Amino acid sequence: MPLTDIGDTTAIREDAFAKINLALHVTGQRSDGYHLLEMLVTFARHGDTLDFALSETDAFSVSGRFGDALDDGGTNLVVKARDALRAAIQQAGGDAPAVRIHLQKNLPIASGIGGGSADAAATLRGLMRLWQVSLPQQTIDAVALGLGADVPMCLHSRPLIARGIGEDIENVDHMPVFAMVLANPLRGVSTPEVFRKLDNKRNPPLPAEHPSSWMEALGGMRNDLEPAARALLPEIAAVSSMLADEGAMFVRMSGSGATCFGIFATAGDAEKAARRLQDTRPDWYFQATETLAGGTHAGNR
């Protein structure tokens, strides 16, 4: 997290890594409508970046490939995270002065890889460093969960298993690095509609034991949302087939879509595949990346 510049001021930078659901099992539904999930999650080294600097007044700006598609007003999760954290700090008797935040939006919007949630989590991390404050972990966790079910996972930004609605987190310190291509047809799919189309909302959980072979283990897991998402957006099947045709050893949709990932034997293979795929469909999104190894996260890489 190097220092960078916003205008004439020195700022703190935080990475908002893409969240990859290697597996997503829907195991039930609560009385309030929230679905119970078990997710095997890792994070890619590719993502958005946020810069933070003290300012006379609060300001928020956006740039990057997907910046024009993003709301930069009060409904943005970055702004909501800033305001929620400030309220928690002030309630605890601390000071949270005005801040200028700039988001470089490199991830597609609403694409199943946690872009908005990752941005919110990076905002919490960055502002706590900029404001030089510490809060009880219970308070930080409550702020994160209040912003969205994926934000606690993104606050960790390390390989993990998440259960419940996403708040029950267990680190997976033995996960290897995966060379990967992220692929998205740049068409949205509605997460609520995907859940509504589920045929079965009470599926088996993730395996309890730690795998000796990760590729074999992934093959025995599922994304229970993928069939419904494919029915809503046929391009998901098309992009998955393109990844497989380029030599991916394993292909699956992440989250509720429409981003799919392909795992490749080497980073070089992934980079070559991403270039060929982008040449074939320049109007779609393809990104070669590597995931974080178990035991590393946004603040330790």
From TrEMBL:
Keywords for the protein's UniProt record, in alphabetical order: ATP-binding, Isoprene biosynthesis, Kinase, Nucleotide-binding, Transferase
Top class in the EC scheme: transferase
Catalytic activity annotation: 4-CDP-2-C-methyl-D-erythritol + ATP = 4-CDP-2-C-methyl-D-erythritol 2-phosphate + ADP + H(+)
Catalytic residues as annotated in Swiss-Prot or TrEMBL: 19, 150
Single GO MF descriptor: 4-(cytidine 5'-diphospho)-2-C-methyl-D-erythritol kinase activity
This enzyme's EC code(s): 2.7.1.148
Transferase listed as a keyword: yes
Keyword 4Fe-4S included in the entry's annotation: no
Biological process per Gene Ontology, one example term: terpenoid biosynthetic process
Residues given in the record as ATP binding sites: 108-118
SUPFAM superfamilies (alphabetical): GHMP Kinase, C-terminal domain, Ribosomal protein S5 domain 2-like
Domain GHMP kinase N-terminal: 76-157
Pathway(s) served: Isoprenoid biosynthesis; isopentenyl diphosphate biosynthesis via DXP pathway; isopentenyl diphosphate from 1-deoxy-D-xylulose 5-phosphate: step 3/6
All residue ranges annotated as the GHMP kinase C-terminal domain in the record: 216-279
InterPro entries xref list: GHMP_kinase_C_dom, GHMP_kinase_C_sf, GHMP_kinase_N_dom, IspE, Ribosomal_Su5_D2-typ_SF, Ribsml_uS5_D2-typ_fold_subgr
Pfam families: GHMP_kinases_C, GHMP_kinases_N
Function according to Swiss-Prot or TrEMBL: Catalyzes the phosphorylation of the position 2 hydroxy group of 4-diphosphocytidyl-2C-methyl-D-erythritol.
Family, similarity comment: Belongs to the GHMP kinase family. IspE subfamily.
HAMAP family: IspE
NCBIfam families, alphabetized: ispE, PRK14608.1
Protein name: 4-diphosphocytidyl-2-C-methyl-D-erythritol kinase
Organism for this UniProt entry: Rhizobium grahamii
Lineage: Bacteria, Pseudomonadati, Pseudomonadota, Alphaproteobacteria, Hyphomicrobiales
